[in-house]
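Task: sequence design from structure.
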């Protein structure tokens, strides 16, 4: 693995140690959309050891999703190229060689996530419905849906209930200004994972509230709606290895109801909720199929699409209202979220 560009000098530990956080979580492997709301929270602080662990990270892998904004795709593609990161038998006819399907994904030597528990980590907002909608309800529906079985062809399993909803985590994190940097994210992830669990069976989703930016240090690659000059991405997924607790998978979900990231109206669950759900779906599918980018399923054959992941190939067109994504049933409920690429159909799809 490449060394991380996000490792922080030791001198920054003292600076970051003053940033305290109160983290509340409930360990509940929810079986329905309401059960996670009724758990008794447990409070814990993000401590200096968490900050130190974040500062000493040496290995990480990241893949960033560009915003629907002029020039964003090119900037993010260069960033992913520098720092980022077997199909089922099908009845769809294959072309006679040397022809090929230019969008099909091919696996590298890396692992894929056959099953995992998703943990929602909410930063600086405890009124989830007003800040993000109901992302855990969406994750529960996604895990029980036919849509999730589109992943079967990549991970080699057809079992039901492989992807479930787990801990509910609230983090109150003090920052200078309004921007979180990788060492901040690492510290929050470490604090949650050392209590809830590390390893490939856990995926953490870090939700940032409206008004909170996040940047990759001095790279100028940011989610920053308030600073258009550096605003080029909507979300990302990453893997990181800590020296004490080991490997952790997570996604970072900034506030999606902004220009360049939101879905178009009308939305069955409202533009706030479905913008969150669509971004979350994109990053979840990519974490499962390419958890340590770019060693999993990515496009490895098309010059125009090389490096693209399962969600990237199906990023929708956008207009002034937002991204033009379809509305379809996920576990019997309508959601407006993007499709994902299927080698089975050689197309973007919502069914296995």
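Answer:
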């Amino acid at each position: 693995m490449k060394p991380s560009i996000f490792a922080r000098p030791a001198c920054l530990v003292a600076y970051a140690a003053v940033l305290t956080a109160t983290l509340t979580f409930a360990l509940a492997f929810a079986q329905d959309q309401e059960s996670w709301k009724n758990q008794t929270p447990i409070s814990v602080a993000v401590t200096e050891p968490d900050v130190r662990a974040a500062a000493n990270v040496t290995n990480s892998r990241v893949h960033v999703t560009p915003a629907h904004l002029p020039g964003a795709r090119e900037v993010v593609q260069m960033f992913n190229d520098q720092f980022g990161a077997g199909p089922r038998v099908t009845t769809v006819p294959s072309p006679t060689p040397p022809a090929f399907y230019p969008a099909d994904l091919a696996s590298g030597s890396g692992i894929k996530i056959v099953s995992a528990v998703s943990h929602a980590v909410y930063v600086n907002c405890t009124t989830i419905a007003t800040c993000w909608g109901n992302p855990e309800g969406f994750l529960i529906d996604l895990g029980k849906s036919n849509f999730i079985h589109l992943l079967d062809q990549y991970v080699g399993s057809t079992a039901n209930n492989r992807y479930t909803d787990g801990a509910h985590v609230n983090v109150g994190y003090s920052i200078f200004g309004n921007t979180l940097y990788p060492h901040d994210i690492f510290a929050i992830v470490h604090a949650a994972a050392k209590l809830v669990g590390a390893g490939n069976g856990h995926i953490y989703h870090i939700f940032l509230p409206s008004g909170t930016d996040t940047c990759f240090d001095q790279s100028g690659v940011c989610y920053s709606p308030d600073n258009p000059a550096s605003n080029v991405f909507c979300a990302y997924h990453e893997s990181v290895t800590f020296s004490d607790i080991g490997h952790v998978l997570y996604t970072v979900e900034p506030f999606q109801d902004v220009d360049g990231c939101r879905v178009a109206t009308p939305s069955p669950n409202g533009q706030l909720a479905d913008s969150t759900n669509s971004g979350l779906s994109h990053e979840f599918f990519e974490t499962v199929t390419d958890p340590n980018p770019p060693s999993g399923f990515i496009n490895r054959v098309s010059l125009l699409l090389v490096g693209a992941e399962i969600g990237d190939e199906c990023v929708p067109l956008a207009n002034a209202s937002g991204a033009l994504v379809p509305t379809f049933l996920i576990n019997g409920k309508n959601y407006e979220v993007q499709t994902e690429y299927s080698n089975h159909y050689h197309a973007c799809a919502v069914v296995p």
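The helical segments are 11-17, 48-55, 72-83, 128-131, 135-144, 152-155, 182-196, 271-289.
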